[in-house]
Specification:
3-stranded mixed beta sheet, 7 strands, 52% helix, globular
Length: 265
């Protein structure tokens, strides 16, 4: 088996036995030859082993689902995880503009809240895993989840926190800690110019931006941590979902609402 033309090391096939190969397509927005140039084979194998083991353990996945659901406990319209799976969810075209905007803002909040709430995140943010209901948004992800390395998660939190809070020193420390400081200007461009109140998501733009960033990192001799693979899947799923909704979204609002004690929805 292979991942975009590259042979998967040994136990990496465990994950693909659980998830159809097509479900790696979200990673196409993130992975390129330059990505694998800065992700050592040992790091790739480490992350694949973890993702494969996680996917094969239903009991631990239920714990991860409960942790994700807890991020939205007490809200007027919570997110219910894994309780109302639908094999054929309504197409996004069935949502009016208000519904698509609400869906996109909610999915952005899911992305940020999982990063800010704890060490575990479910990565499957694909559009066909969500169903809008009058009392809740139902999320039925496949068992694709990760327990972030503590230092890596701290770096990602500081990256977003430094950017959205305007703390350049914190942002710079995060880039350095993650080993991607050679591409600081590229990551600033990726996160968005202006106030990030109306951001459109396009997989092709993400791919081009991150390819440039990984080339910079490669040329600087950087080596990425294993969790960059999981983050790539997470970002790829997010971008594909939001691009399909066809609207611009208020990313800053989603980030602010994801903070502990953020405004109730």
């Amino acid at each position: 088996m292979s991942l975009f033309g590259r042979p998967l090391p040994g136990s990496g096939t465990m994950l693909l036995r659980t998830l159809r190969a097509a479900e790696w397509s979200q990673l196409r927005s993130y992975a390129s030859a330059s990505f694998f140039d800065v992700l050592p084979a040992r790091a790739l194998l480490t992350q694949l082993r973890e993702l494969g083991g996680n996917a094969a353990d239903p009991q631990r996945f239920r714990i991860a689902q409960r942790a994700a659901e807890a991020c939205f406990a007490g809200e007027p319209r919570p997110i219910v995880v894994g309780r109302e799976a639908r094999e054929s969810p309504p197409p996004l075209a069935s949502l009016d503009e208000a519904g698509r905007r609400d869906r996109g803002q909610r999915v952005l909040e899911v992305y940020f809240r999982q990063l800010r709430a704890g060490p575990v995140a479910i990565l499957d943010l694909r559009a066909n895993r969500f169903v809008d209901g009058p009392g809740a948004l139902h999320w039925s992800p496949r068992p694709l989840w990760v327990r972030w390395d503590e230092a890596f998660l701290a770096g990602v939190r500081d990256l977003y926190g430094g950017f959205y809070d305007g703390d350049d020193a914190r942002f710079g420390r995060a880039l350095s800690g993650l080993g991607i400081d050679a591409a600081e200007d590229v990551f600033r461009a990726h996160l968005g110019a202006g106030d990030q109140r109306a951001v459109r998501f396009e997989a092709a733009t993400l791919q081009a931006t991150l390819h440039e960033a990984f080339v910079r990192c490669r040329d600087a001799g950087a080596r990425l941590a294993p969790n960059f693979l999981a983050l790539g899947i997470y970002l790829g799923c997010l971008h594909d979902h939001l691009e399909a909704l066809g609207l611009a979204f208020d990313v800053r609002e989603a980030y602010e609402r994801s903070a502990p004690g953020g405004a109730a929805r």
